Structure prediction request, 242 residues.
Amino acid sequence: MTIKEVAEKFDMTNDTLRYYEKVGLVGPVKKNSSGMRDYSESDLKRIEFIKCMHSAGISIEVLKKYVDLYDEGESTKLERQHLLEEEQDKLEEKIRTMTEALDKLKYKIELYKTNKLDEYL
Amino acid sequence: MTIKEVAEKFDMTNDTLRYYEKVGLVGPVKKNSSGMRDYSESDLKRIEFIKCMHSAGISIEVLKKYVDLYDEGESTKLERQHLLEEEQDKLEEKIRTMTEALDKLKYKIELYKTNKLDEYL
DNA sequence: TATTGACTTAGACTAGACTCTAAGTGATAA
DNA sequence: TTATCACTTAGAGTCTAGTCTAAGTCAATA
Prediction:
């Protein structure tokens, strides 16, 4: 699969895909006889996982660490699990924070709708 | 209330408070006779609201726009409401995205725990 | 009185995550 | 066969949201 096709599939830019490869999140991606990237199935699966995790707010740095541990092999299994568990905690905390903010936002919108605004902001 | 006290109360830095004032999110904060900031109750309420919304991922730019509309007065009420409704939609979408990612993360951790990992990454 | 410490300002710097530019290569269409 | 187009690289530039620095002021303590 070409870089363009991958970019379209995952709705990201070619630049972002090359950037992910440069920092070592993906690949190195195989090149065809003309030197152009040809993404494999497993490249695609990595990209999907990374995109999903990154869109949830997990940093490139943390994802890179995970990928590096993965590439080191079996011996890092437990460390990888712990890394994921930490990210799970952070993610749950973030969702809580956002849900709280959402509630406040909804309350404020309610004030607007019922014309009961007399507050600061 | 001094800048230090406010920073402690909301767990942010003096620098961030000055930055918020510089971009017009808060204040202008009153100064005492020695030229030092003395935050009022309504400054504190703004800061609390802004901190909460920003921690949920609403950008400084959007918050600034809201504050500016607020300061323009009554006539912008409907526009402000619409702005908040848009942010509500975005926030709900973000929470959905993050919840999806969280589910995938939990599933992956389960694979680690039951030693069923045979996948990519 | 001298120094310490918390504040003030303007403005430079930083990190993270891209995003763009310039210069070049290879395959295909006119 | 020349032009066009999608790709390649290295490296520079951008944006957001701070964060830090330098130089200075003021009040309180040694």
User: Anything to note?
Assistant: Chain A has a mean pLDDT of 94.
